[in-house]
Amino acid sequence: MAEFTKEDPGCGNPEGIDELMEQLLRDQVQLENAHTVINDSAWAVKQHWKGKAGEAAAATHEALKSNIAAKHSLIGGAFTACRDYRDAHETVKDQARVWVNQLEAARQTINAASEMIKGPKNAPGMAELIEIAARSKAAAVVEEAEALERLTALYEDRVEARDAFRSAIAYLTEEDGGINVKVRAIDNPSPSGPPRRTQGPNEADLGSIRNLIDQANESVWRMVAAWVSGKGPRTFAWDESDPFTQLFVRSDSVAKVKASIQEQILNGNYRDTGRYDAQGEDLPRDLETITSLGGKGNLPEAFMGSFAYDYDVTTVNGDGTATVTIHAWNYTDVESATRIPGTSKAPGGPYYLGPYASMKFVQDVLGGYQTIRQDITWTETVRLP
Q1: pLDDT: is 28 or 348 the higher one?
Q2: 298 by DSSP, 3-state: which?
Q3: Alpha-carbon torsion 250, 256, 261, 262, what sign?
Q4: Please, are residues 76 and 104 in contact by the beta-carbon 8 Å criterion?
Q5: Which of 24, 291, 322, 341 is the right S-S partner for 79, CB 3.0 to 4.6 Å?
Q6: Cα distances (angstroms) measured from residue 180 to each of 171, 286, 294, 329, 371
Q7: Mode of pairing for the β-strands spanning 372-383 and 235-238
Q8: Same structural domain for residues 164 and 272?
């Protein structure tokens, strides 16, 4: 696409603007759906959760709704900027064509008149022709100046619209204020405890997984909608090509599982099962991850919590390594959602958060919080003994 200039501000087209606007509308619909789910859940909480647990749950729902509303507003601003930029381009393009044509005609007249004026002055009738050419040139110079003035004004209009568009998009994606604030997630320090690691990208190239995190988090919210509403699929499965899996395997819990599997294989166990149990100190961090809509922490990991897994060495490679297929699975139900991590083996445990009874009531009476299953399968390369 040729870049527009002061002499042709209508040149080119704002490439991809329609596709971007369609994407922004889809994003808004997703946020609106999420807001509906949170509203339904908040209503159930208000009806059945009491005391401090109810207050904490209500505050969590309000934080979620505020975050969704803020992101919805940002997307709305970006959509408006896109539309204004597109409309400004069309307006400038229509108006500029007249003045571009006038500029071209004026310059042709100026060039032709200049050549005429340079001609032989003593030839019969030339004096009159030169005088006509001089008048034509003078008029063309005025027309050229007028065209340039109008084109410059149109150029400035388009620059202003473009800058407003770029500003809206920049704010939409900047780490502190925009919709993609959640991509800061994994490596940032947290007052609630040590941060979960990102296995692979460091802070310098975290932006390269921005879309990955967005798509993985969308999968989580689809599950939340199915769980809270009791409607939709009861099983969600992902392989290693899916963003949910790719983000989940970067988590601390999977790092611990991989270390355990490596140890088992070094001990000669090429096929086995195991379990990862979330720890009590994970609870504040996971709550922060959820209330930030995945803006902090690792949302797939926070949703999975504890999980079972099995592994199988499928290929022995010639370089002293082996390819291992790992399958992790988990059931999300009222018990798993309210069980306090780390209390399963405690005397009299496990222990549950206060909302357990109310959520069971909602499950039995309203049909929400129905059990869903997650299955995640991927491969790893490990050293052989």
Answers
A1: 28
A2: coil
A3: positive
A4: no
A5: 24
A6: 10, 19, 10, 29, 30
A7: parallel
A8: no
